[in-house]
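Protocol step 4 of 6: structure prediction from sequence.
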Amino acid sequence: MTDPGVSHRLFFHAFSEPPVSHPASMPELSIIAPAFNEEDNVEPLIDRIAEIFVPAGVDFETLIVDDCSTDKTSEKLLKLARKHPWLRIVRLEKNSGLAAAMDAGFRNARGRVWGTLDADMQNDPAEILRLMKMLSPDVDMVNGWRKDRQDKNRFTRRFQTKIANGIRNRLSGDNIKDSACGLKVYKRECLEGFTLYKGMHRFFPTLVKIRGFHVIEVPITHHQRLHGVTKYGPGTVGGARAFRAFVDLLAVRWMKKRVIRYQTRELTPSSTTLPPGAAP
């Protein structure tokens, strides 16, 4: 039987912050989606979320983080928010990238569970509901695996993903098949209070594991982008992006090797037994 005086998940490192305060009344789910110049996709995304989650009876909110779009993304979202009270919009004051948009989403989310997806409609929001049901006392995060990618240049993207994940897993000692997949479901405590840095969005499953939580990975559906072009994909800045990703990977490798792991027990005068190694 586990001793209630022993903490088994006190894994701390230099990059943690105190937990972010949150309201006493929390929705069950926060759906978080970063968006940059997705004016043609935000309406179908919100319509699909309404179609799935409103009839399901889930207490939820949807948080769209606008990464300082230069098109009509914010304008369309504000119009949709008048219709859907569960829709919240956070806009970054300048274009800051995917990691910053995710961080802003996490810090503003109120839900007990966080479900993330891309705003480009390549991920079906219905998958969040399916992955939520897989959370349990033994499962803290479910990572989506785009096993059958449907990108317009699917063969190139599959090859890039396979190579990138192979290098990532070899250096980080992990076994995740699709770390960069945007569709993920977390218990709030997995990343609450965690300090993110640029590029860290590529390593969420590994970072969650470093904090002592259990992660599983399951195949999900994937669809072609119908409108616009990818804003955060591998080809956006070429080799410079790949180099930065490799440097970020080395940082994650260092974090994993240097993380502090320990257990504690509070001793009181009424303790009946001394801990191992203590002098009588």
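Step 5 (inspection) to follow. The helical segments are 42-56, 73-83, 98-108, 126-132, 154-172, 204-210, 239-258.
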